[in-house]
Amino acid sequence: MKKILGNCRFVLILCAVAGANGCIMEEKVLEIVITEKTCIKLHEHHTSEIYSTPAVIDYAGEIENILEDKGVSRSEIKRGIVVSATHEVTSFSQSTNWIISGRITVRRTDGPDDGPVDILSYDSISVPAALGKVSPVDLNPDGVALLNRALKSFIDGSNPELEFVVISGEGDVDPDPTLLNPMIFNWQPCITIQVIIEQRLDVPDPF
Q: Which domain holds residue 166?
């Protein structure tokens, strides 16, 4: 509604500028780029360096929320792509300087047999140093391709759901977590997407 009212005000202002002799309208097609991120909220509590942490994301719901905030609908999207990723430790209260490495996989869980594939990896991150710090991370092309297919599926009318899994192997955590000294923190990898929407708007023809 805010978008429609904004467009109407824009047209009325242009008509007023054009003068009182009338306003000839012409339809224009505008392409608008929306850039937003979806985040995977993870809680890590481990007593071993070898662990996996799954998280299921309603990808369709995340995108719908982005569109609702912008006042646009799914039908207005023409295309979309994944463009970048970051990670951030959001909660940590221990004194141990945990150094972590690992990778995150992604797969579709809503029906299509797609994945799992790696979406990103991280190496030698200090958990306390990463607290409150948003850091860029390289994306794996295979994971990007899967997310782009899921985004295309959403545009075409499906409701994709994704499972992300954090995987830590032998030697990926220093020092080793134990029962007496478990590693505990919250963090969130975030994926930035761009969607291009198309809007038709009647604007005054100045000629």
A: 31-200
